[in-house]
Amino acid sequence: MAITCYFGSGSPFSWRVMLAMEVKGIDYKAVELHFSKGDTKTAEHLARNPRAKVPVLVDGDLTIYESTAILAYLDRAYPDTPIFGRDNKESALVWQRMAEVENYFGQALTASLGLIFRGEAKGREAEIQRDLSRLENELDIVEGWLAESDYLAVDAISAADMTLYPLLALLERVGPRLTADHKVGFLPLREKYGHLAAFMKRIEAVHGYDRTYPPHWREAA
Ligand SMILES: N[C@@H](CCC(=O)N[C@@H](CS)C(=O)NCC(=O)O)C(=O)O
Questions:
Q1: Cα 52 to averaged position of ligand 1 atoms, centre (Å)
Q2: How confident is the model over 87-99, as pLDDT tens digits?
Q3: Class of 3-83+211-220 per CATH?
Q4: pLDDT tens across 16-32, in order?
């Protein structure tokens, strides 16, 4: 087994890489780093990624970080079951959707959850509501894409879907905490968005999905 993936439980960036390897049928060893134990800040890990983050992929003599770069590498190195489309046009569509998910959906999610989960929400409800409404707008956009097609970019699962799904799963998981303290019109996700619910089920049916599921989410369930 040549590939090692250093991951963090619940890290959406790690999850997308593991999904990609499952979809491609790549044999890999997943090594969990625990944020609370400072595993990402050890000298050993900093040598892998000076930004002290996961995921990091080690394949032979290559060590690579940044999930998007890892996805692109995997598709070049292991071309079976392409995840960036089968031709130039499909590749462009996958990259476009990935960029939209990362730059708009991901940003809106990070902004919405950031203040709340850093414990900085007090007295900043207007800001939070503005971020939540940006997020709702992005969810509406995604729902519109999925009304047209089973997957985000092409007619098969792609890197764009793998980028989106873990963000949705994370939002779903923190949903009860969000709705307890804030006015949120878009939760529970799977009740409000039918196409998105069907999409999530489709990803959850991927062979090997269970191996990618965040271990500490399972323990807490
Ligand atoms: N842009 C990076 C983001 C990676 C990232 O932010 N990872 C977080 C976990 S979700 C991390 O490792 N944080 C380190 C820590 O909290 O110690 C990527 O796409 O890989």
A1: 8
A2: 999 999 999 999 9
A3: alpha beta
A4: 999 999 999 999 999 99
